Amino acid sequence: MLAALAEGTTRLDNFSTGKDCASTLDCLRELGCRSQTTRKGETLSVEIHGTGMNLQAPQNVLNCGNSGSTIRMMSGILAGQAFESEMTGDESLSRRPMARVMKPLAEMGASITAAEGSRPPPANLRGEVARNRLRNARGERTGGGLRAFRWTVCGG
């Protein structure tokens, strides 16, 4: 995910063939991030062409599959974007509580709603407010997307 937000190309070798990683790549592609995968024997490599924090509004619902990590971290990234997104997942993912992610992102200024209160998916997230309102101690605007992403990964 960080490679998608960076500028330039990042190459990841020994990339996992798991469904969670595939769901993450699919979401990033839907947000305008280009990537290519290559396989040499048992080794899978992915080249991700970063957007420099300039993700595009998705044309479709972002499907996180069964990946709780994808929906949590993607929520943090999308909280700092100037567009609306909808995320969904499989039946198992829809039973997982997300209030611990939704509440802090809403306090940062993101508008996030879920079909069943605190249990997405589907979840709808509009992050423009978060990008414009996040400021550091000196009152300067900060990278809201990265701050929200960091919170969803590290808890603060």
Overview features:
156 residues, alpha+beta, single chain, 2 domains, 4-stranded mixed sheet, UDP-n-acetylglucosamine1-carboxyvinyl-transferase, Chain, 6 helices
Explain what you see.
The chain is of the alpha+beta class and 156 residues long. It folds into two domains: 52 residues, no CATH class; 91 residues, UDP-n-acetylglucosamine1-carboxyvinyl-transferase, Chain (Alpha-beta prism). The strands form two sheets. It has a four-stranded mixed sheet with strand order 4-5-7-6. The chain has a three-stranded antiparallel sheet with strand order 1-3-2, with helices on one face. Helix 2 runs parallel beside helix 3 and helix 3 packs antiparallel against helix 6.
What fraction strand?
Answer: 15-25%
The beta-strand count equals 7
Task: Kindly report the oligomeric state of this protein.
Answer: single chain
CATH superfamily of the largest domain: Enolpyruvate transferase domain
CATH architecture of the largest domain: Alpha-beta prism
- CATH fold node name of the largest domain: UDP-n-acetylglucosamine1-carboxyvinyl-transferase, Chain
Give a topology summary:
Layout: H1 2-5, E1 9-12, H2 19-30, E2 34-40, E3 43-49, E4 62-63, H3 68-78, E5 84-88, H4 99-107, E6 111-114, E7 123-126, H5 128-133, H6 144-154
Parallel strand pairs: 4-5
Antiparallel strand pairs: 1-3, 2-3, 5-7, 6-7
Summarize the structure.
This protein is of the alpha+beta class and 156 residues long.
